Each structure stands twice: as structure tokens, then as C-alpha cells.
Amino acid sequence: MEKQPHCECEVIHADVVQAVKQQLLGEETYMSLATLFKLFGDSTRVQILHALEQHELCVCDLAALLGMTKSAISHQLKSLRLARLVKYRRDGQNVYYSLADDHVKKIIDMGCEHISE
Amino acid sequence: MEKQPHCECEVIHADVVQAVKQQLLGEETYMSLATLFKLFGDSTRVQILHALEQHELCVCDLAALLGMTKSAISHQLKSLRLARLVKYRRDGQNVYYSLADDHVKKIIDMGCEHISE
DNA sequence: TCAACAGTTGAATATCTGTTCAACCATTTG
DNA sequence: CAAATGGTTGAACAGATATTCAACTGTTGA
């Protein structure tokens, strides 16, 4: 996660490197992107997201669906919630989760396309 | 990464769970998706990918651009190579890397859209 | 052939991350 | 109010992962 330690080599193509550097986004942007994609980088979480893509579900439903404990699911939902990938509503004892926006679907679809090439 | 340990709770909405289950993809598909997205889930790697989106670059260029050692960059490129996200060509002492297909760009763009909402 | 440099690799280390466990809060129902 | 159930939380542990380091390969040019 650290950056600028040092670079032991010479720049081979100074001009190209300079040009590309102009196009690069800020440090924090790459951090945010990584943080976002990290959430898709776990089979439990993608599965949760893909399930919620089909229908809103409560924690117990998800636990049953994935064969996992409510606790494990709840921990993962918390991460997804903090990243605003899912939203929730409480109805009685149940908390229903659903996707926060459709970027999630688009990203998963794009991933599916890539792996099925 | 493990699955079916047990679920301590009852299924609340058996019908919905059943319906969603039908729509779910295979276990291995979610694994593959997670493996793919995990590669985008590191700021060094997204930065490499985003840089290569602009122009093909050799390892030294990337090292200089990101302020990291050639070794660190090379290790990451290996992961990206194995996942067929980047391709490379050797020219003399230099090895030039570039994006393997345009899903990479689409996925990163989608990510940018999400974080800039 | 040898030196120099680009790049790769494997082992080691420090850090991060996912699940479990136990305790807890929230809501409903008797 | 008490019991039952859905859900959340924090600490702890095990497994994964990114960078470093040192050794190595491959290519060029003297």
C-alpha cells in the first residue's frame, strides 16, 4: 500500500512516461478504486451482490442461500454498506438488503464477459 | 473461501430464496469473478492498468512512473499476465506491456463512475 | 568473452482480511 | 416483562497477499 520508496532504474522513455503521467489520476483516486474493486474480489461478496441483483433479501435468506452463518454475512454486508454498494431497510425483525445502484450489475456483467472469453 | 459449514437459522422466505438460487451462477464462476476483481483491488495494480491504458510501457517506465522497484512491478505484472489482463512483447532488453483487451478499460471506467457519484 | 542493464523469480516478512465465537442490541409475541 | 428470533459487533485466529531482498536469466555492446 506504500508508495514512493525509490526506483533503482533509469527512465527508458522519458517522453512517454511524462505523457502518461499527465493522464494519470490522483493517488487517492487509485486508492478509492482499489477499495471499491477489493469488495468484488471475494467470492462470498460477489455472490451476495449477484443474489441481491435478483431480489432484495434479508440476512437469514442470504445465510441460507450461501450456506454461511448470519454473522459472516452480516460482516460482509457491513463492508458493502460502507461502500454504498448496498442499501437496506428494516421491516420488523428483518433487515432487507438490496443493491444501491446499477454500477454493481454493470461491473459484474463486465467481469462475466471477461472470464467467459 | 470455504463454503457450506452450516446455517444456524431458518429460511425466512423459502420461495424467494429458491427463485434466487435458480438464477445464481456456479460456485467456480464466483471464484473466477473474485479472482479477476481481486486484481483490480490493489492501488498499485489499478495504477499499472490505468497507465497501460494510455500507452504501452516497459517495466522500468512503470517503475519510474509509480516510484517503485522493478521487482515489485514485475511481480504484479506477473499476476496480471496470468489473468490475461495484460500482454507483452520483448524488444531487445526491454519487455513492453500493454492491455490484453478492452474489458479492463470498461471495468475501470465503471469504477470511476461509481466513486465519483 | 565480459560487463552492464532489463527483467524475473523464490523465499521471507509484515500486513491485511475473512470467518468464527461469544456477547450484545432490536423487535415481536405471549 | 420475558422469551425468542433477526441482526450486529469486536476480538481472535488462520490464511492470503504485497513488497523487499538477493540471486538469477536474457540481451546488448565493447
Task: Write structural notes for this entry.
The structure is a homodimer. Chain A is mostly helical and about 120 residues long. Chain A is about 60% helix and about 10% strand. The first copy, chain A, has six helices and three strands, in the order αααβααββα. Chain A has a three-stranded antiparallel β-sheet with strand order 1-3-2. In chain A, helix 4 packs across helix 5. The longest helix of chain A has 14 residues. Chain A is elongated. The N terminus of chain A is likely disordered. At the A-B interface, helix 1, helix 2, helix 3, strand 1 and helix 4 of A face helix 1, helix 2, helix 3, strand 1 and helix 4 of B. Chain A binds a DNA duplex (30 and 30 nucleotides) through helix 5.
